Amino acid sequence: MARAQTAALIIIAFAVVLFLLVQARFMLISLATAIILFSLTSAVINFIAQQRLGPFRVPNALATIAAFVLISAALMAASGFLISQINNVLTVSLTYANEVPRAVASLFGFIGGGTEAAIESALQSINVSTYARTAAARAGDVTQAVVLIILFVGFLFAERIWFDIKLTNLMGNKARADRVSHIIHSIIWRVNHYLWVKTVISALTGFMTFLLVKMFGVELAVALGVITFVLNFIPNVGSIVATALVALVAHIQLNDPALTGVIFFAAGAIQFVNGNVIDPMMMGRALRLSSFGIIISLAFWGAVWGVPGMFLSVPIMVTMLVVCSHVPSLRPLAILLSREGLPDLETEVPPVDRVQPVTTRGAAR
């Protein structure tokens, strides 16, 4: 009876949490993104604050303000560029709207004329202009999300010098606080390492894709390069979708099956080499996640938060892996999430870089 009650309470708690995740997804996605950006730049702020200009050390406050201004400017510039590319894609899509059904249906011509005609008829029934207007309206959400992320990052920067003091007081003693701080540092380092490597690989893949489609005269070369860069942050599925999208756009614009095949295999080769050769070499052993676990995380967070959840699925899974590996009762879950069954090897994690201790000691007194 007790086990049945416990199981019922767990199911109810999971349902409540899932409901809250769905209802507050815009704020939670913005908060998760802000935390990731904050963790990416905290190490840089600490490094700048440790530098000396002659006999003077760069003030921590000055380093924090500079980092916040740079992040805000970069986010606003990136959102503006992304919105302009979305508008460009929508404009071109409307231009080719009448040709898309025939071009897509021709890809299935090898099955039979009846199948090709059925697919073309089904695609012609889709109102492209309606979907374009919906996409344009949703693009405006990007600016709102960027403003909210900037606000979250600003408050996190303002609170960062008090984190150690709050953690010590919250845990009750320094030993326990140091253990929690080590877990947090391990999460931040692994997520940062993953994002830096993924950014480099995605930028390289996007640039090579841009050069490829530009060489063949495809009109949306810049947009396809940007889309490839963005989609490569979605594990496993993103590279497949990006390759198929590049081939589809090339087929619609060029209307040449031979050239489409060349572009498809070239784009696939770029994705394969960068994703399966260069990426593992740069990633090293810092991200030892189970491939099956990544797919499950991708599917779950994609269902809960949509496309943004797919982008955040790996950082969330890394967080779960590190936390579960340090909690004895959850260690079996950490073993399942890890690729080799060794979730807590910390040999590659560098020591913690803390905020200037003079400020925190003074504040503690």
Taking all Cα atoms into account, the compactness measure Rg is 24 Å
Low-confidence stretches: 355-365
Beta-strand proportion = under 5%
Order of helices and strands: HHEEHHHHHHHHHHHHH
Largest sheet: 2 strands, antiparallel
Q: Provide the structure class.
A: mainly alpha
The shape, in one word, is globular
Total strands: 2
What is the terminal separation in angstroms?
Answer: 52 Å
Structural domains: how many? 3
What's the helical proportion of residues?
A: over 70%
Mean pLDDT equals 79
Order of strands, main sheet, comes to 1-2
Number of helices: 15
Report what the structure shows:
- This protein is an all-alpha fold and 365 residues long.
- It folds into 3 domains: 10-172, no CATH class; 190-284, no CATH class; 288-345, no CATH class.
- It has 15 helices and 2 strands.
- It has helices at residues 2-23, 25-49, 60-95, 100-106, 113-124, 128-159, 163-171, 174-215, 221-231, 237-254, 257-283, 291-305, 307-326, 331-337, 357-364, and strands at residues 52-53, 56-57.
- Strands 1-2 form a two-stranded antiparallel ribbon.
- Helix 7 (163-171) packs across helix 8 (174-215).
- The chain is globular and about 75 Å long.
- The relative contact order is 0.10.
- The model is unreliable at 355-365 (pLDDT under 50).
In summary, what is this structure?
The protein has helices at residues 2-23, 25-49, 60-95, 100-106, 113-124, 128-159, 163-171, 174-215, 221-231, 237-254, 257-283, 291-305, 307-326, 331-337, 357-364, and strands at residues 52-53, 56-57.
